[in-house]
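Structure record:
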Amino acid sequence: MDFLRKTPPIDITTGANGPADRRTATLVMACLGVFVAYLPITTVAASLPAIQRALSASTAQLSWVQDAFVLPMAALILTAGVVGDVHGRKKVFQAGLAFSAIGAGVALCAPSVQVLWIGQAVAGLGAAALLPTTLALISHAIPDHRERGKFIGVWATSLLAALALGSLTAGVILEHTTWRWIYLLPVPLSLIVMAFAARLLSDSRAPHGRRLDWAGQATAATAITAAVYGVIEGGASSFADAKVLVALGAAAAGGAAFVLVERRSTSPMLDLTLFRSPAFTATTLVAMISFLGLIGFFFVLSLYFGMVQQLDTLHAGSRLVMVTLAAIVAGAPVGRLMHRISARVLITGGLLVVATALLSLTTLDAGTSFGSVAWRLALLGLGMGTVMTPMTATAVASVAHHQAGMAAATNNAFRQVGGALGPAVLGALLTTRALHTLPGHLRDAGLPETSRQQIVSATDAGGLGAVAGLNLGADTGRALDALGEAFLDGLHLCLIVAAALTLLAAVCSAVLLRRPRNAATTGSRAARRADADPGSGSGSGSTTETVAASAGSSRPDHRLR
């Protein structure tokens, strides 16, 4: 370790002085890496109804299928950035690909939902390693901020392309075979990228006296995992259950311990002074809330398409892809608009568009047509695409330069925390509301008392999907219709809550994203702090200097703080 601390940073490619083909190879490897990292999100989301039927999984168990992947991303992304800084980003990049391949292989062969969770968790660990290192590799390969912005734009498009293609890929696969083959593609893709990366990528590190914050990592992972477990199990059973109360208590204790540990650490995983910046606090809240709504929305909407509209995965995927395609379309001009329109206006306006789209979806029913759904999903995607770029760029620009890497890594981590909580929170709301209204819908459908009791007992024990496995004879059709109506009650509640959270994020953006009173003075103080403490840098090195450039700006943005 002493040797690593004394070793100067290694520059993998020198940008203007380095060969162009090496920079192109770095970009290609980074784009493929982030593609591998994000592909499972919508691939699995679109396949949830098929997984539920094949493995007889409850709604709570389905929530864990998603969260088993997202939780490691949220809990380990900051640590992965530090490991790359200290021990080499190429090593972490290849380790991320290896974990992605292993996790997909385990999920591919999973005989039960519990083994599927393990595969998802291993793949999530790989994604946590890939996200910070792909940006760091680009940052070191292209030092010029103007040119780097173009490269980051391609990287961001690869991320959105993974989300867009995931649902369509799952649909095509499930048209011809079973759900488990959705995990086949990441295995050869990860191995091929690993082989090329071994030859084409040079390593880089930027230790600057940093060391791993094991206490911070342990307390953060405890808080995040316990919170998600408590929400999922509380929704499946009761929030008064002893195990749920213990989990939520552990989450609170873990969060408090994390704050205490980080305040006292000489090399914190997260410097809590970042939150003294209102703009950083606002963008972090926006990142967490927006992904909570987006990933949770994908979760409940995929169940709506499968359980209520009885669509196959291909047709469900063609609807889900509207969100990410619209986000790609909106994201392209947003970077240029940031030169003319403040981030406050873009972020707040985009969130208001998202809230409008979510509220418009509350009129969905079993017979809603593709055209009626498509324009609302496209509107949602346009809003999200408007928010993403200025949100990340503002988070980086709102702190001192030497903290830029930690700022973006923190923004990314909170985004993944929201993604982990999304299926848990909205899944719990969906199940609780649907189970509450189901007896009334069964009674309105005219089912006899014995059938109603059989259905209610089955859903209490195994979730909403348990109804499909019951033999109700002539009552089956009416029972499924009643189940669909109860599901719609839960879906509408989820959409209203998601819209309310989005409006809250819009208020945070409008109130906290303000022009500083004296940006020059603030910047000079930050520079003096950086000179006095050069080792207090980022959790992911120069990773997020690149993200700031993704807005297309050739100069620092000190407008917001």
Observations:
- The chain is about 75% helix and 0% strand.
- The mean pLDDT is 79.
